[in-house]
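Sample intake sheet
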Amino acid sequence: NSCVHYFLASTIANYFVVFFILPSRILSDGYDIDPGQYNLPYCRLRFYTYFTAKSLSSWFIVLACFDRKMSSSQSVHSRAFARPIIARWMIAITTLVGLLFYAYVPVFYIIDSSHNCGARAGFYSLFDDSVYLVGYSLAPPLLMLIFG
């Protein structure tokens, strides 16, 4: 079943969140141990991994919804989309697009004077919030609603 590939990819993306991002968040918020306050590469890698993993997980579920929609279509051409080989290609393409979508994070994230890791002030901060809003909070749930 091609849908299994999408759920497996979503689970793998969530493992990155649970095993890499969550422990660093627990250390920083719970124990006030945050290497991101003084280590710029760590700051950038942490947020890049966080954004891409969370976003990719949602987008893989969108693909699973779309796959199910296509597999129940009356059109033979639409049903042809719901094949495991297509799922593998879509996972690879979505991963590449997701990695490129957040490629600005390693460039625009800094440690400011109060030792907070985040997007540069001004336009970059607004851009960062807008990209996250559209790429994670709005588009995937709306598409799941449409295809689900």
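Comment: The chain has a mean pLDDT of 94. The chain has six helices and two strands.
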